[in-house]
């Protein structure tokens, strides 16, 4: 993609900077090709939990933060909504850091007039998780999925093949994971409905999709651990999910119905 795509709004979450599986290089490439008027950082931008266990901070992770600051200085409004892995930043809600505004959550009004709650999504965990031991088991299994995903894609690179999220594929085939995602969607939309909103835009569960449910719109912008996805609103009021790895040098729709989300 040779020229920059200008969009109204760009939503990204779950970068997990400071974690070894963060796909910072893909994200940097996307940010060089997409120019938003407003950038929403929807939580788990820096993985402070991972950094407590092991210091991991390659130059590409530093460059991502520098890119956010540069975008703000060039006129892009940047709003940072912390998640559970960067929850310590929540104490600075309603303050600015390097021109970046920190908020607990925001109400986003699309160009078509629809109103969405924008939050990370960890506030819905209580209605999804069955208990502490199940949550712990889920963490262990997820780490295993990421391990498999890491080595699977190392092998693909050696064969000259493009990146493919094995972790996302496996999760899509596990009925328990599908049920948990559905419960998460219901909890998010229930919360938004109480505020008389049209839908919700969130992250947290690393599962990018747009779903029409209960006469509302559920949007998850995905992550930069597995799927390398973001959500954009174009200037014509259309909205879509985008997928970005070394294979993509242009916007690729990953859902045929996303353009109707507005």
UniProtKB/TrEMBL annotation:
Tree of life domain: Bacteria
A molecular function GO annotation: metal ion binding
Gene Ontology cellular component annotations, sorted alphabetically: membrane
All copies of domain Calcineurin-like phosphoesterase, residue ranges: 10-207
Alphabetical UniProt keywords: Cell inner membrane, Cell membrane, Hydrolase, Manganese, Membrane, Metal-binding
InterPro entries: Calcineurin-like_PHP (IPR004843), LpxH-like (IPR043461), Metallo-depent_PP-like (IPR029052)
Designated name of the protein: Calcineurin phosphohydrolase superfamily protein
Species this protein is from: Pseudoalteromonas tunicata D2
């Amino acid at each position: 993609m040779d020229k920059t795509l200008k969009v109204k709004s760009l939503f990204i979450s779950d970068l997990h900077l400071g974690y070894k599986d963060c796909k910072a290089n893909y994200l940097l490439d996307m940010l060089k090709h997409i120019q938003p008027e407003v950038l929403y950082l929807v939580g788990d931008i820096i993985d402070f939990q991972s950094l407590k266990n092991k210091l991991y901070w390659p130059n590409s992770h530093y460059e991502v933060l520098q890119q956010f600051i540069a975008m703000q200085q060039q006129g892009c409004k940047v709003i940072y909504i912390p998640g559970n892995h960067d929850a310590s930043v929540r104490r600075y809600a309603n303050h600015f850091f390097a021109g970046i505004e920190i908020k607990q959550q925001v109400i986003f009004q699309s160009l078509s007039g629809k109103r969405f709650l924008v939050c990370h999504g960890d506030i819905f965990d209580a209605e999804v998780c069955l208990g502490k031991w199940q949550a712990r088991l889920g963490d262990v299994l997820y780490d295993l999925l990421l391990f498999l995903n890491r080595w699977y894609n190392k092998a693909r690179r050696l064969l000259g093949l493009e990146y493919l999220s094995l972790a996302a594929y496996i999760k899509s085939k596990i009925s328990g994971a599908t049920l948990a995602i559905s419960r998460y969607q219901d909890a998010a939309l229930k919360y938004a409905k109480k505020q008389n909103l049209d839908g919700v835009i969130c992250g947290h569960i690393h599962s990018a999709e747009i779903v029409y449910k209960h006469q509302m719109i559920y949007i998850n912008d995905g992550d930069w651990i597995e799927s390398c996805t973001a959500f954009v609103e174009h200037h014509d009021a259309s909205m879509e999910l985008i997928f970005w790895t070394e294979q993509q040098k242009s916007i690729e729709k990953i859902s045929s119905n996303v353009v109707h989300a507005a």
